[in-house]
User: What shape does this take?
Amino acid sequence: MNTKRHRMAADDRRSAILDAATTLLTDQPWEDVTVAGLLDAAGISKGGFYHHFTSKDDVLAEVVLRLSDASISAGEDSLSRCGGTAVERFSAFLAHSARWELSHAAKIAAIVRMAMMEGNGPLFVKLGEESARRCLPLFKALVRDGVAQDAFCVVDTDLTAELLMHIGRMRWPTFLGARRIFADGQRDAAWRMICDRVRVEEGLTNRLLGLESGTVTFPPLTEYWLVLDAEWQNEAP
Amino acid sequence: MNTKRHRMAADDRRSAILDAATTLLTDQPWEDVTVAGLLDAAGISKGGFYHHFTSKDDVLAEVVLRLSDASISAGEDSLSRCGGTAVERFSAFLAHSARWELSHAAKIAAIVRMAMMEGNGPLFVKLGEESARRCLPLFKALVRDGVAQDAFCVVDTDLTAELLMHIGRMRWPTFLGARRIFADGQRDAAWRMICDRVRVEEGLTNRLLGLESGTVTFPPLTEYWLVLDAEWQNEAP
DNA sequence: CTTGTTTACAGACCGGCAGTCGGTATGTAT
DNA sequence: ATACATACCGACTGCCGGTCTGTAAACAAG
Assistant: This one.
């Protein structure tokens, strides 16, 4: 009773809770996040919490949506805005995505760290499902257009799109690895790791699309310096 | 007290519990499997159970090992037994694996069903990790040898191996899809789905390895008829 | 056949967890 | 002022994973 009763707009309260959950998730696997802890972090009572969410997992689902939405939306509308030939479109899409990712490096790093954390299987799977649900169609469309224009020559549209997405999914975990190496003082090795990764992705992308190496292009390597350069909070110990 | 005390050899008891867990897992996600339920299914008390396992998750870990070990071991020693050129070795490995899989279709199907079940993220992830831990090195070795012999021309050994494994991982989920379609009466469509899948895998494998289509070969399509033909228990409702 | 020791097992018990419920405060419309 | 809706509270419940104390079976030694 001594606790003052803060009444907030439903949406504000929801996002406050979601924020708290996201924060907790940065250094705890979801299994270890308790509703009590979440209540504490969000400054609300159990009754209040269950007025806004139906279950603990309900919160996770929303968190996943919030985490993935920004990046996926960016991809979706970058795609809708690039024209030209299939090859140009593909390269433009790659460039837009890369730039968006690089300018949100800290946030992406945090998400990847969460997803890769021990005991966070559910989060990892849900994020994967969500990105498959929304990103795969993008890649498929891109590939299909190229095939229709006789620009690409793929073995199979769907599997090719899936592999392209799979490659992209493993990019940031690799970047984080480089980042760690960089922090260890092996700066050259770290930078080489990043350059290699990008070059390899470009090579594989062209190969999967049935193109000469260098046809579809990734942004210039120098842009990726941001991966190592950016100041991030919450670095792993 | 009225319960008779069955005293068993430790190993027998362990595997009895593991069997029970595996059975429960066929129609329940791991989250929903309770220790009490497991106790009941295995016919043992709590004290007995915790004498053999340190935790519920300990059981899952063991189950994962048991599920994955047979197939992975088969792969490992089939690899060790095939000689010849890199291309021959690769094809032989593919053939051995395919035949082993096809002759254990029911079991594989059950495992895949478990892993793909809603709310079984942890199982899915753990199985993936285990197969990555043991299968990836196989693929890497295969690819590396081919490159060393100038037989393969890959963009990057490691990523190529990873993609090859990823393709393989998605094979049986696809087969199960075909199986469902088959059960629905669309027999031709189901069979076409399987043939397409195998052809596409073969095409992509050759492309990733930098080979002319048809160089590395999968077993003849007719062998895959077993996917649809075999009598399996526990078909999904 | 005793005795002692180890090992497999039993089941009462515990702390903590997610989720519920009756009730209370804080608006907003009439 | 009255009535209704909505945000919120915290005691409570039921269950679940895990521990603990104790007991019965197997085995070894004398």
About this structure: The two ends of chain A are 41 Å apart (CA to CA).
